[in-house]
Amino acid sequence: MVNHVGSLKEWCTLMETSKEKLVVVDFTATWCGPCKQIAPIFAKMAEEYPDAEFVRVEVEDADDVAEACGIQAMLTFQFFKDGNKVDELLGAHPNKLGISSNT
Fold it and tell me: Is the peptide bond before 75 cis (omega within 30 degrees of 0)?
């Protein structure tokens, strides 16, 4: 299941979650074509990796979160562990979007 983060308060709670498990964040926008194309792949990954937390941040609704995370392009994925960003992927690259045991 993909959850949604819409505020800095929810973001702070999510970073607490990242102390327990990997958090994968999809920074998306409703106007972004590639974002729409990869959304079902992201949702499928959430089902395939139940030990990770998958969330979506709509950048226009949560611009404060996007700004805090330094989002400058659609589509951006960020990976968090222990409250820290451990990886980032820019663009809709389904073959690159994966979770390794190192992350």
Answer: yes
- The model's pLDDT over 5-32, given as tens digits with 9 standing for 90+, comes to 999 999 999 999 999 999 999 999 999 9
12 included as an active-site residue: no
Q: Is 92 a domain residue?
A: no
- 100 part of a folded domain: no
What pTM was computed for the model? 0.87
Instruction: Work out how many domains the chain is built from and give that number.
Output: 1
Active site residue 35: yes
Active site residue: 35, 38, 59, 92, which one? 35
Of the residues 6, 17, 21, 32, only one is catalytic, namely 32
- Tell me, yes or no, whether 74 lies in a domain: yes
Beta-bridge partners for 79: 24, 87
